[in-house]
Amino acid sequence: MQGQLDLFAHSRTVILLNDLIDSLLERNTGRACERLQLLGVEAPGHPALDALESLYTAIDQWPVATTDARDTAKLVEWLDSEVAPAAASALGASAPTFMSSLWRELAVAVASQAYDPAYPQSHSASLYLLAGDASAALHAVISIPGRDLDPFVLQWVALARHRTSGRHACRAPLFTLALTTPQRLPPVLVALADPALHGATGSGSGWTVPGLIRGTPWPALGFRRGI
Fold first, then answer.
1. How far is residue 154's CA from residue 177's CA, in Å, rounded to a whole number?
2. Rounded CA separation 11/186 (Å)
3. At 201, is the pLDDT very low, low, confident or very high (cuts 50, 70, 90)?
């Protein structure tokens, strides 16, 4: 008899949990609040409860208005350090979709904010990349002054072009990045996750001129500079 009761309680918890997750994904704050309270009573020690509470807080406060790049940077930090880990913990395979929608909406909301090199993570191009929209990111960088030499813009362009057109399309920004701020090249190559771009100089590497840039382990590339 006790086993049947335990099974019933477990089933009720699972139903509440699934309904709460659906409510969060739909951004139904009213239902999410109700289900969260019920889950707290039904299973106060549930391991996902804290993460679910963080996600409810996020959708309840969303959208968050920002007035400048500094404000946006704080919001980006909150999404990246608190909301994204909570989503990964509680939503499983649905976490990328949940976060992508937040990043995209923020990118649209700050599209009119001028680029501030002190807070590059606040620019809509960076946010579009986080949302998985490389084409929108490329469009967003067009109006940035000095974009051909700005290391953050070069990173965004390299990542976006690689996603939209492949490794050959991202060689020019990588070349400029390697020449101007070579210390920023390794993390970009890691983010690209393309083995052909990791230091090889053979015919299948994508590099056109073997050789090393002085002071760095990265091959020199033989093509026109500029993005």
1. 6
2. 48
3. very low
